[in-house]
Give the backbone structure.
Amino acid sequence: MLTLKVIRENKDFVIERLAVKHFDGKEIIEKVITLDDERKAIQLQLDNNLAEQNSIAKQIGKLFSEGKAEEANSAKQKTADLKEQSKVLSQKLSETEKELNVTLVKVPNLPHKSVPLGHGANDNVEVRGGGAIPKLHEGAQPHWELTKKYDIIDFELGVKLTGAGFPVYKGKGAKLQRALINFFLEENTNAGYLEIQPPLMVNEDSGYGTGQLPDKDSQMYHVGLDNFYLIPTAEVPVTNIYRDVLLNASQFPIKMTAYTPCFRREAGSYGKDVRGLNRLHQFDKVEIVQFQHPDKSYDTLEEMVSHVEGLLKKLELPYRILRLCGGDMSFTSALTYDFEVYSAAQQKWLEVSSTSNFESFQANRMMLRFKEEGDKKTQIAHTLNGSALALPRIVASILENNQIPEGIRIPKVLQKFCGFEMID
């Protein structure tokens, strides 16, 4: 959530930057400022009312002691009238503050100055890449055929048990999943991230804190009876660990990692691009989250990008890193790098990670503050996160890119976690 200070002091700049995300902010920014003006005016009236009540209350006892009963009773009536007025003003202030907050949370984060202009995925800018695109043997198959051939993932069984987008992993397929999770967690913890095992359901406050609510309400699975939400990413519970927390600047950086299943209702459009593991309603992902001082958050973002890149290098997958353009960015992000790996049998690039700096946007919603040593003033922290990594498309690329006539070779770095070198 943008701060009122930023909006009021930089109105034209805010509207200009929102336009980079193709968000027309003129009307809503004007509304925010108008509501804030109304809030301030009501607060001033209320403060003056309370001050007058206090002043009169001090006079009443004195008037009675001086035998001026009629004046004292008149003052008491005046106080009663002011109290009624203060009740009305307090109610009006509460309603105005609520409307202001409801309006504020609809304003996206401002994109960083380095965000490219553009409307969608075709306008994203490739930063760098690596790895060699493999040349497959004649008769090579896409992963949904390979999983059936080697009986390692059963999509039809998932439909029977739950529905489309809920695959069942079997045998070496299940072991490959577990191997990837363990590999990612080991790499993350070796890089200084604290492993967390969070709940898979969160309350509304947590969804609101990281910006999934109200923006992505329709994309989340809602447990209506208890008013909980199944998490779309570990980002939500892990980031909210520090909701309503006041930190010391000396505690930065705070680094956490978590593996969780993730649940998303909106799994994309129908057709060939969503076959197999390409888009799912339930999938496994390992997340990295950092809290950082505002002066250091962009250096931290580059560090996180390099860390995720290192994972892909160790998996020996061809990859590229994209800086997202304004039209392809999320509601909450200030700058995002997407990682894509090449799927040789499908002959296309698949997104496997988004790594982002949210600056103060999430922290302001969560009331995550910090103080410098010896300074009484509180500041808003910066939050960052990234997938390290999301499993489905990594698995798809491993299966497709490493297939040979005899079977599927397991990347060397995973063999100690899998306990086997080949799926055959």
